[in-house]
Amino acid sequence: MFRNYLITSFRSLLKNVNYSLINIGGLTLGITCVFLIVQYLRTELAYDRFHDGAENIYRITWENQNPQTRVPHPMAQAMANDFPEVESAVSLTPLWGPGLTRQTFSFRNIEKNIQYDETNVLAVDSNFFKVFSFELLKGDPSTVLKRPDGLLISESTAKRYFGTDEPIGKFLSVNDDRNTIEVIGVFRDVPAQSHFHFDFLVSYVHEKADEDPDSEFYTWKDFGHYNYIRLKPGTDAKALEAKILPWVRKYIDLTPEEFRYLEANHYGFRLQPITDIHLTSVLRWELEPNGNIDYVYMMSAAAILILVIACINFINLSTAQSSGRAKEIGIRKSLGAFRTQLITQFTGESMLVALLATFLSLVLIQFALPLFNAATHQTVQLSGYAVVLLVGLGLTAGLLAGLYPSLFLSGIKPAAVLKGKGLQGPRGTGLRKVFTVFQFSASMILICVSVIIYQQLNAVENRGLGFNREEVLVIPIKNRHAIAPHQDELHTELAKIAGVKEVSAASNIPGKSFNQQTIFADSDPQQRVDASEIAVSYDLLKVLDIPLASGRNFLRENAADENSFLINETAAQSLNLNQPVGKTIVLDRDGDALKGNVIGVVKDFHYQSFHQAVQPLIFTVRKANFNYVLVKLNTKDFPKTLAAITSTWKKFDSRFGFEFSFLSDTLNEQYAEEKKIAQVLITFSVVAILIACFGLLGIAALTFQNRTKEVSVRKVLGAGFGDLIFLLVKDFTTLVLFAVVIAAPLAWWIMNDWLQHFTYRVGMSPLVFVGAGVLLLVVAWATLGYLTLKLARVNPATTLKSE
Questions:
Q1: Is Cell membrane there in the keyword field (predicted)?
Q2: Is 660 helix (H, G, I), strand (E, B) or coil?
Q3: How far apart are CA 61 and CA 223, in angstroms?
Q4: What's the number of CA atoms in the CB half-sphere (13 Å) around residue 524?
């Protein structure tokens, strides 16, 4: 029986080769796209789920008008001590330089003379491995972080520095060959799907020993650490969260007024599930850039739409060809075939087509994976599990696509067929029209989504930032101990180089994180404002062409400027200062109050991404706190200029490697996630249109075949060539136009919601939707062109000679 079904299926495929190729081609493209999207979604949804009991791990965050990820260092352990619901807790932080910029360390294996500059260094509590499931390959997880004189390194880091040698007990020098630290543990490389990564771990015990005794960094007063807790299974996290604010008053001195204010505004500490961080968290000072749940929804919708479009092709073509198989079905039923047997046969045929499409998809994926990985910055591989998933996807698509045609064809009544009555009733034709409208509606939505994302990103890249980002070279200062004492000399030497226009330095640069401090006017200490702080040298405004709204810039010859401030317009407005120049304000830097006069107000400029409105910003002059040197260039002879800059730099810092980047590239990195999604969606939109056109081509071929005699009669009766073209294209044009009308408002609603994530966003022009509609019409007409012209030129004598 099975052999007979298989033979019949192959005969049917070979009998209608053109339609079989359309079916197989459409399903191949559909399965390929859906497989790639599913792999992308699996990666995005898998973040932080590798931890044992990941559903019980939470990050403690601070919620107010400017919510953030960092909270006081003692808080995690205090919660573990005071709340029985907390099983274990850990506090951690990257090792920061000034301005909340990650500090660079030069590690060196002195014996092998192997040296690298590193920034992925975390300081952690001894409970680190109790909360997280990072695998420690060498060392005792219960004691290894209690040693103040040791260093833990990743498996790949151990190979970089020690090769095949045993790393435990070996030493690495840090920044200076006289300063060494022992390797006491090796952990497996952090999985890619983690919301933070690290190559080195040091114990807080070591860091606290070197801390200034007067520092508040490790006290309840400083919100400067990342705290995580592991709850006991079954704990209600929301119920525990509600207890935190009243409880914390025993450690943080909150006045009754402050406490009531926090409660009234629903502010306070929050428990954020670790598995939600990557896709949903948009707080200040994330350890790494996160993903976006909206893109998961978009890609999921794209996968569903593409798969449905491909399945609809199959359904349309199968039902449209029903008249060709009607006699076969009628005879089979007359000879005693049961409907279940026919359903099995036709479903088997669709599964065969799906398997052929899956095999071709497997070949196509091999070529598409490198491009897909490059576009999404992922490392999807065609593993055994992935092949099983692909086959399962193909069989599912075959089952979904073949179910309705099987039921439809097996329901044909043999008496009607054998009497010569047709099968193409209005119901079947109407359903195919609905399916065609759906296909082009889905294509229209994907086109509009892709175009609007592209327009928004293009507008962001070309929108005026309020400063000049072009031809600005950014050099990170890795060795502040070597550079800081000679900062002025370095600037002077760099400025002498041909091709260098201006030189300055700063603690932070646009596009990167900024430290937040509290500022207030001396005359109104109650009006406190969170402001980003940037320490600069005297010529930063010149390097970036940042204009002044009022007042003046810092002056080298004026020593008093070292205790003065520049602020931006937003800071002046937030402090309610109508005439800010000359006013005294206070910068509260982690409890260290610095009072000074405002000597100038700079015009607002976008130092953060366009996802955010411009925030208050304060400038100070502090030479010892620079992290970057910024060089304004004439890039006509860039290689020669860069070589001179590199040579000059190495005179001042020979220990660390020289690195540079362009400021424009740093700013564009803020939108890398959106860019890769736009590229992928545009590609899938093209594929969706292609699959829809496959279906349109197949349906049109069958429809035109059934209208051959009608066209011949009309030609005999005098119908012109143009009239026939209009007659044949009219119905399909109407369907496409109807699809455009349905899809346009849906696409507008989807993208209006997405654009809300940008403070500065493009308007959605009606031309986008009109253009997408015109594109679909042109593509549909191009698809129908050959068939339409061929049928319009048919010779009536040939067609009607048998009548």
A1: yes
A2: coil
A3: 10
A4: 11
List helix spans (H) across 192-255.
204-209, 237-248
Percentage of the chain surpassing pLDDT 70? 83
Q: Is the pLDDT of residue 667 over 60?
A: yes
Written as one letter, the residue type at 28 is T
Which residues make beta-bridge pairs with 171? 182
Task: List CB contacts of 133: < 8 A, sequence separation 6 or more.
Answer: 50, 51, 52
Helix spans in 83-234 (H): 128-131, 155-162, 204-209
What are the angstrom distances between the C-alpha of 342 and each of 213, 339, 460? 85, 5, 58
- The answer to whether 447 touches 313, Cβ cutoff 8 Å, is no
The per-residue pLDDT for range 328-339, each reduced to its tens digit, is 666 666 655 566
Q: How far is CA 45 from CA 274, 277, 293, 297, 540, in A?
A: 12, 11, 9, 11, 42
Q: Concatenate the DSSP letters of all residues of 605-625 into one string.
A: ---S-TTSPPPPEEEE--GGG
C-alpha closest to that of 93 among 53, 56, 121, 130 = 121
Using an 8 Å Cβ cutoff, are 505 and 491 in contact?
Answer: yes
CA 346 to chain centre: 42
Amino acid (one-letter) located at 267:
Y
Residue 411, token pair as written in the block = 């329901």
List, in sequence order, every beta strand (DSSP E) within 559-654. Answer: 565-568, 584-589, 592-602, 617-620, 628-633
Q: Considering only CA atoms, which of 655, 626, 658, 352 is closest in space to residue 509?
A: 626
Alpha helices in 478-594 (DSSP H): 480-483, 487-495, 540-544, 569-574
Domain ranges of the chain: 2-42+293-459+672-800, 71-235, 472-666
For residue 759, the number of C-alpha atoms closer than 13 Å in the C-beta half-sphere is: 10
CA atoms within 13 A on the CB side of 535: 21
Please give the radius of gyration of the chain, using alpha carbons only, rounded to the nearest integer: 34
Q: Which of 615, 606, 605, 610 is nearest to 757 (CA)?
A: 610
610 contacts 456 by C-beta, under 8 angstroms = no
Which secondary-structure segment (H or E) carries 403?
helix 384-410
Placement of tokens 């830097």 in the chain = 589
Alpha-carbon torsion 788, 789, 790, 792, what sign? positive
Instruction: Using alpha carbons, list the distances in angstroms from residue 537 to 527, 534, 624, 707.
Output: 29, 10, 10, 80
Q: Tell me the C-alpha to C-alpha distance, in Å, between residue 144 and each of 108, 127, 130.
A: 22, 10, 12
Question: What is the model's pTM?
Answer: 0.82
What phi and psi, each to the nearest 5 degrees, are found at residue 92? -150, 160
What are the contacts of 251-254 at 24+ separation with CB within 8 A?
Answer: 251/72, 251/74, 251/75, 251/78, 251/220, 252/72, 252/220
Poorest-pLDDT segment among 125-129, 194-198, 321-325, 688-692: 321-325
Amino acid, res. 110: I
Among 109, 237, 249, smallest CA distance to 166 is for: 109
SS3 577: coil
Distance CA 26, CA 394 (A): 12
Beta strands 472-476 and 628-633, pairing class: antiparallel
Q: Closest Cα partner for 685 from 459, 470, 447, 472?
A: 447
Query: pLDDT tens for residues 505-543?
Result: 999 999 888 888 889 988 888 888 888 899 999 889 999
Q: What helix, strand, coil percent values describe the chain, rounded to 5?
A: 55, 20, 30
